[in-house]
Amino acid sequence: MDLRYGSSLAVKEADIALRRGEIAAITGPSGSGKSSLLYCLAGVLPVSGGEVLFERTNLGDLSDEELSLLRRDRFGFVFQYGELLPELTVEENAALPLRLAGQRKAQALATAGEVLGRLGLRELRKRRPSQVSGGQSQRVAVARALVHRPAVVFADEPTGSLDSVGAQVVLAEFLALARSQGTAVVLVTHDTNVAAQADTRYTMIDGVLTLQGRSVS
Ligand SMILES: Nc1ncnc2c1ncn2[C@@H]1O[C@H](COP(=O)(O)OP(=O)(O)OP(=O)(O)O)[C@@H](O)[C@H]1O
Ligand SMILES: [Mg+2]
């Protein structure tokens, strides 16, 4: 597939197949097209050429409404700064995908509480995002991305705001939780130690995605 913004090609060539539960990491220089690729894979931006398939459905064939339901129910997202809703508590933030899918509040909060517990955040669940640390809010964002057991989580430098030790701890927890529930992950990271934990590693250079390595399993 490829993606152009006006006349400039941000993604020139990308051929990637993600198996169920697979963890793929993408590294590459700033401006090489990593975020753009992620937006295409996640159905946030339509591709300019080629196609993106999810379970045999071509995302380009879906209406906006179908696409947003697919993103809501089957995908999870973690971004660089977590992006929690400040007026909601930690547990309400983490429960959001379940609430959007129509689950009752008590049930959604109970499930969110379990996931938060697995990330060591149970005690903080009644606080607001402004009352927790940067690393803790990244964990809340991880909880929110995984709480509805999506098929795929798209993560764009999910620990970009943390120092390297803090980032590695959160990422290790994130990948372990995703693995334990069989959620596939497409992770953009600048950290090669983190990329080394993935099943498949790609590099993006000047809009071209190249497979770098695959761990034997
Ligand atoms: N909305 C946009 N309109 C026009 N050009 C864009 C847009 N978004 C990104 N670009 C350009 O597309 C190219 C790829 O950008 P992208 O954000 O995908 O890079 P990246 O690899 O994620 O970089 P970084 O590591 O800095 O996040 C860059 O040259 C960027 O300037
Ligand atoms: Mg980016």
UniProtKB/TrEMBL annotation:
Check the record and name the Pfam families matching this protein.
Answer: ABC_tran
Keywords noted in UniProt: ATP-binding, Nucleotide-binding, Transport
InterPro entries the UniProt entry points to? AAA+_ATPase, ABC_transporter-like_ATP-bd, ABC_transporter-like_CS, ABC_transpr_LolD-like, MacB-like_ATP-bd, P-loop_NTPase
Organism of derivation? Streptomyces camelliae
For the keyword Chloroplast, the answer is: no
Keyword tRNA processing on this protein? no
Protein name listed in UniProt: ABC transporter ATP-binding protein
Q: Where is the ABC transporter domain?
A: 3-216
Lineage, top-rank taxon, reads Bacteria
Q: Name one GO molecular function term.
A: ATP binding
Please name the CDD domains in this protein's record: ABC_MJ0796_LolCDE_FtsE (cd03255)
Cite the PANTHER family for this sequence: ABC TRANSPORTER RELATED, IMPORT ATP-BINDING PROTEIN
